[in-house]
Amino acid sequence: MVLELSNDVLEKLEEQNIRLTRRRKAILRALAQEPENHLSAEDIYLKIKQDDDKIGLATVYRTLDLFAQANIIHTVDFGDGCRRFELVSDTTPHYHHHLLCLSCKNITEFAQDLLEDLEHQIEDSTGFCITNHSLRFYGYCHDCQEKE
Ligand SMILES: [Zn+2]
Ligand SMILES: [Zn+2]
Ligand SMILES: [Zn+2]
Fold first, then answer.
1. What are the percentages of helix, strand and coil residues in the chain, rounded to 5?
2. CA of 66 to the centre of ligand 3 (A)
3. Proximal ligand: closest to the CA of 108
4. 109, 108, 71: which is closest to 88 by C-alpha?
5. Taking CA atoms, which of 1, 51, 87, 137 is between 20 and 30 Å from 102?
6. How far is the CA of 2 from the centre of ligand 1 (A)?
7. Measured between alpha carbons, how far is 8 from 44 in angstroms, rounded to an integer?
8. What CATH homologous superfamily does 91-148 map to?
9. Would the pLDDT of 69 be above 60?
10. What are phi and psi of 114, to 5 degrees?
11. Distance (Å, whole) CA 118 – CA 105
């Protein structure tokens, strides 16, 4: 499956002089193919290994760190001891919110920011410059509520 990378990603790579090698491209594609799955470094490694059996997990980690520094991907932590990654969206540059179901453990994404007013209030009253936030909501998804 050929998946083209968005212009936004390509621009960021170019701006920061990050060469798009075959492996880097494969890692970005793995993330772009399954945005809803919040892949870990191991998940990405296992996917890429199918076509590239010489790749090492350390390379995947290094590349993910590079992309995170370049603001191409976000790191997400759902408190399960495993760092996960997702592409930064062109349209919503801040983190989207995650809804974690305590019963089935499914993670639903909520794409709107809705925090702009709060961000401005915090910035006005503290002088702090907010670049991002990470918010998790815990509770029970619609399906699990029906089962109760
Ligand atoms: Zn925001
Ligand atoms: Zn649920
Ligand atoms: Zn997400």
1. 45, 15, 40
2. 19
3. 3
4. 71
5. 87
6. 32
7. 21
8. Ferric-uptake regulator, C-terminal dimerisarion domain (3.30.1490.190)
9. yes
10. 60, 5
11. 29
pLDDT in tens, 84-117: 998 887 666 788 899 999 999 998 988 888 999 9
Nearest CA to 24 out of 50, 53, 55 is that of: 55
Q: Which residues surround ligand 3, an ion (CB under 5 A)?
A: 86, 109
Separation of CA 77 from chain center: 10
| Helical H segments across the chain, by residue range | 7-15, 22-33, 41-49, 57-69, 116-126, 142-147
Contacts of 143 (CB under 8 A, 6+ apart): 104
Residue where the block lists tokens 């936030």: 133
Q: For residues 2 and 129, what is the distance between their CA atoms, to the nearest angstrom?
A: 39
Nearest to 64 by CA among 28, 94, 95, 32: 28
1-90 matches 91-148 in fold: no
Measured CA to CA, the distance from residue 139 to residue 145 in angstroms comes to 10
- The CATH code of domain 1-90 reads 1.10.10.10
Contact 101, 109 (CB under 8 A): no
**Domains of the chain, residue spans:** 1-90, 91-148
- Contact 95/135 with Cβ under 8 angstroms? yes
- Please tell me whether the overall predicted TM-score, pTM, comes out greater than 0.90 for this model: no
